[in-house]
Amino acid sequence: MTNSTIKPKIGQCCDCPPGTPDQPITAGRCNSFHYKLHRSKVNAEKNKDKEKAPRTPIPKFSVRRKKENREYLIKRLQFLAQPGNQRCFIEGCNNRADTVEHTAGRWGKNYLDTSTWKPCCNFHNLELEKNSDLSEKYQLSKISGKKKIIKR
Ligand SMILES: [Zn+2]
Ligand SMILES: [Zn+2]
Description:
Layout: E1 9-11, E2 23-26, E3 29-30, H1 34-52, H2 60-81, E4 99-102, E5 117-120, H3 122-130, H4 132-138
């Protein structure tokens, strides 16, 4: 790759008649006319392709996500059925745990990694979303995977 597209270049346009003096060119065409013409043709081609393309092909991502969701529902049931996971993990709360709290976030491998999960009651699940003090205390840092550093 050259950096000819970055620096303005002087030369011969491949679409101008032979004998035309050197002029500022981009990608082998004169800036003043043929390059713009060429771009508009290219863009018209691209738009045609867009119209032809099927509206919304199913991305591979969502297929994988569907599979993960199914796996998650099963793992979640198994997790909440364990004797040690019957009560909310928040100190002083003795509510029945109905949900899973993803202490390290829900993306990537954490989504299905039960070592980052905690049993949680519905109330505290919502509370952890809203209350940043509480979430600082109980959720792992989403960047380091370690306990959050409490800033004062
Ligand atoms: Zn030209
Ligand atoms: Zn609770």
